[in-house]
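Now for my pick.
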Amino acid sequence: MFKAIIRVRRRPSILDPQGKAVRQALESLGFAGVSAVRIGKLIELTIEATSADAASAIAREACEKLLANPVMEDFDIEVESFEPAL
């Protein structure tokens, strides 16, 4: 069993209104040194597969078909062995 950790974020050329709102809120709270904020998603998938490569391929296909918008977002995937707690 494997765990795929997927990070999805807007491409640098795409505006991030949520990030802008958070940056402004941080500034109003006194965090004057924060000049930019980008908001993304962290997704964890537990995958039953025969190898890390097979789990990575499943995670990549899930990103391409559902989890990330290929026009606006980039993603990266890390796969690690995972043993669920009994």
Remarks:
- The longest helix spans residues 52-67.
